[in-house]
Amino acid sequence: MTESTSPPSASRVNHVDALPPGTRLAEFEIQELLGVGGFGMVYKAFDHSLLRPVAIKEFMPSALAGRSQGQSLWVRSSSDQQAFQAGLASFMGEARLLAQFDHPSLVKVFRFWEANNTAYMVMPLYTGMTFKQARALMRTPPPEAWLRKMLWSVLGALRVLHEGNTLHRDISPDNIFLQYNGPPVLLDLGAARHAINEQGRKHTAVLKVNYAPIEQYADGDEELRQGPWSDLYSLAAVVHGCLCNDTPLPATLRSIRDRMVSFSRVAKTVKRQFGVDYSASFVAAIAQSLALRPEDRPQNIDAFLLTMGMTSPPEGVEHFDFRLDLGGVWTEPSDRPVPARVIPSVDVTATPRRGADLEALTYRSARPSVHDGGAVVQEAPDTVAAEGPDTVATDMADTVFIDVGDSVFEAPAATEASSEPPAPP
């Protein structure tokens, strides 16, 4: 698979059930619809009390409910009532959970409440892009030092969740957000999505199949229990896919016959093709976390960090700038979409190349974004098909990215460096 490197074209997001601009929800005034996912709508709004722009996420499982006259939702069928209520309760539970945490790499919830047979969550607007989008703008796989800084922030967020007896269960390149002004942010717990699925609504996108560990397919099986090791598998799969510039093999296929290229081989191939070197401790931590059997992985974040030799913050992590720290690896996106742009992928079957032979690397054409009903929908073959887009994006000059309608990112015309360091894990 190749990832789209073209910035989305300008297009306003529309939906028949969206709240119109000017709608008041308490002290918040809706300004525009930013994105629609299978389980929610996200709006840009203005907080008239604190005089600041915010993002408001509304619980809106489009397969189960619609908008009646006014602001209230109605459930389409009595048979869907139980699933709707389960999703609503989990939406509120996720908001309550995030509101009690205060970590720079976790989405902050300012306020949440129930009304109009639905619920709302008020969040900040983040500026930057997803890890998936950033990888598409890299000339080569990122260096180890860059990955260690990114991982430190994400692991810090995961530690907070794990200490609160919560698993993320949905880590993927789409759910790691790289801020222009601040540390990476871990997105989308997906609580409502999982709750609705548990009520038998199997049409929804619950797993990122290329990043989910085998135990997520056997929820409730005592021999395949989920735990911190499950999130570590997903995070390691993100790193594996980053180096390959391709999606990892799904755990379900690996369980039948494991044909996924080992991470040690991937690292050696990247060094041979691009001259990017990775330490033995880094390779060992990622490789162990990708073990198919849960008991063969590091069992918690401390064990992972110990294997990686990263028991203290990486040097310079407090000033991490995901673009600047990449140096010549980073390419700024052009002002216009370039559908024909190509990005290098790692050819693990190739024989060693030397000297001028490095010019003959394997390239794959980037796939442009797909336009769907006025919204720009980024194709995501690494997810289970859902009713409705998984990712919605608008113009890169004023960009808003929403992952399953759960978080909002708005790119400004200019940014400043952040002075606030990320909290250590």
TrEMBL record:
Binding site for ATP: K57
Residue span, Protein kinase domain: 28-322
InterPro entries: Kinase-like_dom_sf, Prot_kinase_dom, Protein_kinase_ATP_BS
GO function term, MF aspect, one: protein serine/threonine kinase activity
ATP-binding as UniProt keyword: yes
Keyword set, alphabetical order: ATP-binding, Kinase, Nucleotide-binding, Serine/threonine-protein kinase, Transferase
Name of the protein: Serine/threonine protein kinase
